[in-house]
Amino acid sequence: MISRRRFLTGSIALSLSGFYTSIVSAVGRVTPWRNWSGWLLAHPRARLAPLNEGQLVDQIKGSTGAIRPVGAGHSFTPLALTDDNLVVMDKMSGIISHDKETNEATLWAGTRLADSGPMLDELDQAMFNLPDIDHQTLAGAIATSTHGTGKGLKSLSGYVTGLRLVTPSGEVLDLNKDNNSDLFNAARVSFGALGVITRIRFKNREPFRLRTQTWIEKTEDVLKKFDQSIEDHQHYEMMPLVHSDYSLVVAHTETDDALQTTVEEDYGGAFISMVAATPIMLRKTLIHTLALIQGSTEAIGESFNALTNHRHDRFNEMEYSVPLASGPDCLREILATIERESIDVAFPLEYRIVDGDDTWLSMFAGGPRVSISVHRMASKDYHPLFDWIEPIFWKYNGRPHWGKVHTLGYEQLKYLYPRYDDFITLQASLDPEGRMLNDHLKYLLGK
Ligand SMILES: Cc1cc2nc3c(=O)[nH]c(=O)nc-3n(C[C@H](O)[C@H](O)[C@H](O)COP(=O)(O)OP(=O)(O)OC[C@H]3O[C@@H](n4cnc5c(N)ncnc54)[C@H](O)[C@@H]3O)c2cc1C
Questions:
Q1: How far is the CA of 80 from the centre of ligand 1 (A)?
Q2: pLDDT tens-digit profile of 250-284?
Q3: Is position 169 within any domain?
Q4: Domain end call among 44, 70, 88
């Protein structure tokens, strides 16, 4: 049986163990920084790791040059890249306060999602939804509108009810829908361009348990039933298997049944290796045969365990969100292009649904969308694949995930977000010297 986790943890081993070791450069002690996939490298001349807001304010005021906050480095785009001041929020982690009546909790911005699940559970709270891994920090996750899947379920930034922002001038601002609501809606998804977020209040719900089922089904059949399936399952996604007519389906349904774990075997890794080793012409037949002999899997877990996975092998990813109605055609065109161009990729796609929100720069601003992802193992150059696929997303009015590979800059982005220019005006007013900007952010904001 193939589980989703194993599907995405393919077996192409990468030797990245040296990436996080310290290196002493010839010009002094500089600890390089790399992102999760290993494709982005920087040599920050200072690492600011504040213990509290007071210290952060002092560090910002006492520093010169650019300031880039970083979370867990899980973005594929150079949002956090800097050779100046990297602000690491790891020491500002944990729960600050909670409200039993409203089911809200305020956490430090550097808290990892993986830590927040059990901590919230102790307070009788749980996040409504989660992305498919939980290594990200809360601030890093909301900064790019990180999301999971499910009808009526928003990206994480859509559940933020308040936050504290330290601006580049060292001002400390408490923002919520009643207090400076424009800045609040801009700051919820702001990829660290407005300042450093130190604490975040989330609207949560009571803890819940999910039954997770995975199976393989014909992609066209899954698409046909998609609208009903997202009604039937709280969280639902499909992972189309390229060079085939099949998809892996992952469905989570709320349950009160007892916890139930399954022993995971590494079929997925073996599967991807097997597919990768098979000539492209024969892959369809191979996957068809495998689909016929595979069964389904089932497990029951607490929501924060059930929704998240471990990724052992590194990859790069491109993801765009397209309007709901365009999802199926966009997906079909991607699959057809990969097949027509005989692109040698074995990694499944990902097709998810996310509800709309009122955050200015959320990919889901203004209404629900379907997000579609394409992956490439980090050992391979992603350009040949992504260069083919990205124009397809543009054709369907796609918005790029801020944290995933894309090539769009201000000239295109201003048409995708009604409040884009307002965001830029706000950014300039908070940061007239452009201290929060690196080259990538300047490109995004047209500076
Ligand atoms: C294996 C893997 C799986 C993923 N799965 C999903 C998924 O299921 N769904 C999804 O939507 N995305 C997913 N992503 C993308 C990931 O969730 C986002 O890129 C996210 O932003 C990474 O969070 P981070 O903590 O690593 O932040 P980083 O990547 O370090 O930073 C992201 C942004 O946040 C800003 N930032 C960080 N901390 C602060 C702060 N305190 N104040 C202000 N700005 C700050 C940074 O400046 C940067 O602009 C995945 C990525 C990987 C590698």
A1: 10
A2: 999 999 999 998 655 444 556 667 777 888 888 88
A3: yes
A4: 88
